[in-house]
């Protein structure tokens, strides 16, 4: 019995160690020697990765090269190893996390390895001074990834791991502007707030020239549509399925069905319908304005703008919290916007034919740094990409409310909709009978608690 238990423990630790170290036979074909310690002649680099961090799902170029301007190598292997974590269903078992995908950049110099998972190796044993391969970083939540290189001068002299031949990168936890901040579930602000939301389009032939539609009168933005709401309401969110109304917005730049869905929820999770006028030819960069209300219960807002033509792509923010941790209203914020995919159409370019996604996918970020040359995001680094639009959020005024004060009955939530659901203005127009320009640019405190 003792020997069986001892054997089990040894086997367990062997498997765990195997999972952690993720080793396979990476020695050069035909070699019978052991690896030498790296001597600095060769170096592995991840181009564009800053501070030993990777952006989830970003495409990187991994380069293996000589450092002394005279050395060369005949064979190589580059491998990606993911972190491990405990299996939540069996704490004694370790499970590996996905390390992303290594892929040959040039089929004449590299190929997928037949010997090792998540690895690329030489296609020909010829002398070379450098080689480059692609690495698609894993999605968010996969922790750190270690990239290791084996490089062989010949069958007898080869190096692996350690020092300049190993790169460990961890997920960059910084979020793009259009990712919502943490929610304040204990919002204690008593006063109500009125906000101005401005959308300004940036997408153009100058900023995003690759595969931009040839006919300048074709591109346009849909109406701006959104809502101020409570923490239980979801207009759209990554990882969820788009509603029928949202599908219409994303695929056809038609907001009417989505507006109807929002109106049905006024008083049941929604405070205000947000609506702004869409723009097209020669007006793409003209700002669109809309106003909305927020209160202690409904202190989040979500909004979206589709851009056309596209398969099902849109810009927006979701569940953005206006109530700060110190229980004050956010005063002002500008957000750069990048494309999201509604998960309902599988087209890869702006003017791709309609290809229904079946079954429907969840909402997700549009695939950046695509391998496909037919994609407008072919080999695009998200850090270098121009935003497609901007949201500018500005506090216009607050309405004093005592915390003990009961919710007034003379103004049901539904009356908020007309305030901002009418077509919003262009730069020179007003969207509702609010006081003139000063209220658009200055925060006014009304201690009298006037309620319109």
Automatic annotation (TrEMBL):
Compositionally biased tracts (Acidic residues): 419-432
Annotated ranges, domain Spondin: 183-376
Renumbered residue ranges of the record's region Disordered: 402-452
Keyword Disulfide bond attached: yes
Classification via InterPro entries: Reeler_dom, Reeler_sf, Spondin/Thrombospondin_T1, Spondin_N, Spondin_N_sf
Signal peptide: 1-21
Example GO biological process: cell adhesion
Pfam families: Reeler, Spond_N
The keyword Repeat is annotated on this UniProt entry: yes
GO cellular component: extracellular matrix
Reelin domain ranges (all copies): 9-182
Keywords: Disulfide bond, Repeat, Signal
Regions crossing the membrane: none
PANTHER family: SPONDIN, SPONDIN-1
Protein name (Swiss-Prot/TrEMBL): Spondin-1
Organism ancestry: Eukaryota, Metazoa, Ecdysozoa, Arthropoda, Hexapoda
